Amino acid sequence: MDGLDYVFTDVVKLWQGSSRWYYVSLPVEMSNEVLTLSKYHQVKRRGWGAIKVQAHILGTASKQPLREQVVWQTSIFPAFKNGLYQLFLKADVRKLSGIGVADAVTVQLRLIF
Known about the structure:
The chain is of the alpha+beta class. The protein has helices at residues 28-40, 91-97, and strands spanning 3-11, 13-16, 20-25, 51-60, 70-77, 86-88, 104-112. The protein has one domain (3-112): AF2212/PG0164-like (Elongation Factor Tu (Ef-tu), domain 3), CATH 2.40.30. Helices cover 18% and strands 43% of the residues. A hairpin with an 8-residue loop joins strand 5 and strand 6. The longest helix has 13 residues, at 28-40.
């Protein structure tokens, strides 16, 4: 299997601790499915439960179009106690696409096995 695509929409959130992290969360059912799939494709599993993905910001719920189409490779993590996978948004991704905290974004993820 080369990969599996998922599309979801979530609001960009900010976590602040010793550093600032911008992220979106995969829905519960999607997170559970991704976790199950990752258990059967352990060849490329990474630390902390990370799963390698190709991410693509498809659009926002705002009336303003994306500044630029952004596609990048990264990993998703079950980063918080709720067990949901999180997609962290690097500064260059946010700047290129023109998205920020509280923006509802639609994301396409391709799991890379």
